[in-house]
Write a structure and sequence with these properties.
This protein has 147 residues and is an alpha+beta fold. The protein folds into two domains: 1-45; 46-136, K homology (KH) domain (GMP Synthetase, Chain A, domain 3), CATH 3.30.300.20. The chain is built from three helices and five strands. The chain has helices at 47-70, 117-127, 131-136; strands spanning 10-14, 20-24, 28-32, 73-87, 101-114. A three-stranded antiparallel β-sheet has the order 1-2-3, with no helix packed on it. Helix 1 (47-70) crosses helix 2 (117-127). The protein is globular. The mean pLDDT is 89.
């Protein structure tokens, strides 16, 4: 088996109602919650917003690092994302036509700066190569933690 370097642990601890404190890195924290319409207090990002934030942040960082390495004139990356459930049979990109739902994430990547059309096109290609994108589009196994 090939060993892959481990990422930092993330610890989620419930607080009150639906709020949680998420601890990661070097003692950094964020609060998660659900909006009031779903029984929460709206005190933090909901889980799907965090998922989209992880993907968008990774896309932005990947594009920025690539442009930096190429010494291109990239000034800003803006990634807009939304997620919704659709029937598999209504999904143009899906290989299956079962009567199940699929999660569809739509994104828009806008790059700003002194870039040629070719550079802009290449950065759009690179956006699909971020590690979180690769994780979300590969098989994922969620297993119980074993010390």
């Amino acid at each position: 088996m090939i060993e892959v370097p481990q990422m930092n642990d993330v610890v989620v601890t419930s607080q009150f109602n639906l709020q949680n404190v998420v601890t990661f890195g070097d003692g950094q924290t964020i609060t998660t919650d659900e909006p009031g319409s779903l029984g929460g207090d709206g005190a933090g990002a909901d889980p799907y917003s965090l998922l989209l934030a992880a993907l968008g942040s990774c896309v932005s960082m990947t594009v920025t690092l690539y442009a930096r390495r190429k010494q291109w004139g990239l000034k800003r990356v803006t990634v807009r994302l939304r997620q919704r459930r659709v029937h598999a049979r209504d999904c143009e990109e899906c290989a299956t036509e079962t009567d199940t739902f699929v999660h569809r994430i739509e994104r828009q990547v806008v790059v700003e700066g002194d870039l040629t059309d070719e550079q802009r096109a290449r950065l759009q290609e690179i956006a699909h190569r971020c590690p979180v994108h690769k994780t979300l589009t590969s098989e994922i196994v969620i297993a119980d933690w074993k010390d």
